[in-house]
Write a structure and sequence with these properties.
The chain is mostly helical and 429 residues long. It has a single domain, classed as MFS general substrate transporter like domains (Growth Hormone, Chain: A). Helix content is 75%, strand content 1%. It is globular.
């Protein structure tokens, strides 16, 4: 994997070199549709957690296959980010987004046709590919479609969309499993309608990225981070990893410890507990957008640390209220940290390199989201689940603590006027 910089002609910060967003009467409506489509992409991923428990009960497959169904999504997503994360910087945002949503329609069809775990694993693999292509491209497109004065708000919104979609998917699927006789049809037929609307919205929106040569070269596995953003990228990477690893704890492992530790069998309750963490992240991501980006990252790191400690304590002592409070605190920390990280990094790249930069951010995020869950799922076959969760939470806490230290040192080292990320209307971090 190669860390590359964009050519020097593409290193001017977006605030000075990006063209003004295209004007058009229908652009605000189309932009809203693009935002809704970005939420729908994550919705489909979040819906898996309650549905997997139902499939395991009906089809009787072992726990490691359930973990595989969760993790294959992250693996194919990461592979797609590595290979195709910068493609939209070369061929434009619209072709990538439309192609990704067409793949998600294939995913819905596979879920609807599934009669065994093999179909589900295949569906999740395709879903990961589509999400890997779409996630960073949606982030870049939405920011670029916004008028310059609205870009700070849209940056915060794009950071909240993935976790908000995960929460909505988990909650909706949990309710569907509990109260519908055909939950898979309810979830994925509904998702199909929203995806078709998203495709129409993307086609109606103007293209924001000019075509550039080098698309084949861009398919070499690499992290494409503009040199102007590298320092902040590596400072923020542990924080992004801590937040998304904490999210993986709930989306990947909560259905298991809800049942084994707390004896929860109600699918709607299970879905609600899974949804607490990503929903808190989505709400906090928007709420913390009012603070300067630097302060929000530091608060976010502290909240993720506290959330991890409380969640582990709650699971080990079998106290569900502690787990819920931990989910709220840690989720809020993830939302604050991730949104502010994008606010800091976004202005450090222009339209010709922003897609690659956000792909690198999401590569860190989804590696932390998926890989530890796979390790934890394998470990839980040999050690008690509570011990697995304890080690998992300790790693999250250590990542958050290292991020707190790194950000504190950077805050003291740099003069206020030189700090980026002040996208709050006050122009400072």
């Amino acid at each position: 994997m190669k860390l590359s910089s964009v050519p020097s002609s593409h290193q001017t910060p977006a605030s000075s070199s990006d063209p003004a967003p295209p004007s058009g009467r229908g652009r605000p409506l189309a932009t809203a549709g693009v935002v809704i489509a970005s939420i729908a992409v994550a919705f489909g991923a979040g819906a898996g957690s309650p549905l997997f428990v139902l499939y395991q009960r009906e089809w009787g497959f072992p726990a490691w296959q359930l973990t595989t169904a969760f993790t294959v999504y992250a693996v194919t997503l990461l592979a797609t980010l590595l290979v195709a994360g910068s493609v939209s910087d070369h061929i434009g945002r619209r072709p990538v987004l439309v192609g990704a949503m067409l793949l998600l329609l294939v995913t819905s069809a596979l879920f609807l046709a599934a009669d065994g775990i093999g179909w589900i694993i295949a569906a999740r693999a395709v879903q990961g590919m589509a999400t890997g292509a779409a996630t960073s491209t949606f982030t870049a497109a939405i920011i670029e479609l916004a008028a310059p004065r609205h870009r700070p708000v849209m940056t915060v919104l794009t950071s909240a969309a993935p976790v908000g979609g995960l929460a909505l998917g988990a909650l909706f699927a949990g309710v569907a499993v509990q109260y519908s006789t055909h939950p898979t049809a309810v979830v994925f037929l509904g998702l199909t309608v929203v995806l078709l609307y998203g495709i129409a919205s993307v086609l109606a929106a103007p293209e924001t990225a000019d075509r550039h040569p080098g698309v084949l070269a861009s398919l070499r596995p690499r992290l494409s981070v503009a040199r102007t953003a590298r320092g902040w990228f590596w400072s923020l990477a542990p924080l992004v990893a801590a937040g998304w690893m904490f999210s993986g704890l709930f989306l990947g492992l909560a259905p298991s410890f809800d049942a084994s530790v707390f004896g929860i069998r109600d699918a709607a309750v299970n879905g609600a507990i899974v949804a607490v963490q990503p929903m808190a992240a989505a709400v906090a991501g928007i709420g913390f957008g009012r603070l300067s980006a630097g302060r929000a990252t530091r608060i976010g790191a502290l909240l993720v640390f506290a959330g991890a400690v409380l969640t582990v304590t709650g699971v080990v002592t079998a106290r569900l209220p502690l787990v819920v409070v931990g989910a709220l605190l840690g989720g809020s920390g993830q939302g604050a940290a991730f949104g502010s990280s994008l606010r800091i990094l976004g202005p450090l790249a222009d339209n010709a390199s922003r897609g690659g930069l956000f792909a690198a951010v999401y590569l860190v995020a989804y590696t932390a989201y998926g890989a530890p869950v796979l390790v934890a799922g394998i470990a839980s076959d040999f050690v008690p689940l509570t011990a697995t969760v304890a080690v998992y939470g300790l790693v999250v806490a250590l990542l958050a603590a290292s991020a707190m230290l790194s950000l504190a040192l950077r805050s003291r080292r740099r003069p206020r006027a030189a700090r980026p990320g002040g996208l709050t209307g006050r122009g400072h971090v």
